[in-house]
Design goal:
Structural class: mainly alpha
Number of domains: 2
Radius of gyration: 16 Å
CATH class of the largest domain: Mainly Alpha
Order of helices and strands: HHH
CATH topology of the largest domain: Arc Repressor Mutant
Largest sheet: none
Low-confidence stretches: 1-5
Distance between the termini: 43 Å
Number of strands: 0
CATH architecture of the largest domain: Orthogonal Bundle
Number of helices: 3
């Protein structure tokens, strides 16, 4: 299997299909990914039950806990903007 250190090239349709089926991180060059937005570290307290559920979902799709939480917050903010304009 390819590693994120040396991702292999695949066609967009194949990547789309793999994305729909699950994890595609092995095809991404995560070492060279950069954010163009300033980052601020925050601390959030979760119940043990919530954290276990987050960890389970993160493991299921093959991403980190932090990445999953960021995606979920971004999705929620996008939905909020669509409904309220903010």
């Amino acid at each position: 299997m390819p590693s994120s250190k040396n991702p292999r090239s695949i066609k967009a349709k194949e990547l789309d299909k793999l994305f729909e089926e699950g994890d595609v991180t092995e095809y991404l060059d995560l070492k060279s990914a950069k954010s163009h937005y300033p980052m601020h570290r925050v601390s959030i307290d979760f119940t043990q039950d919530m954290l276990e559920k987050v960890d389970h979902e993160a493991a299921r799709i093959g991403v980190t806990r932090t990445s999953l939480i960021k995606v979920w917050v971004a999705e929620r903010l996008s939905q909020q903007q669509e409904t309220t304009g903010y």
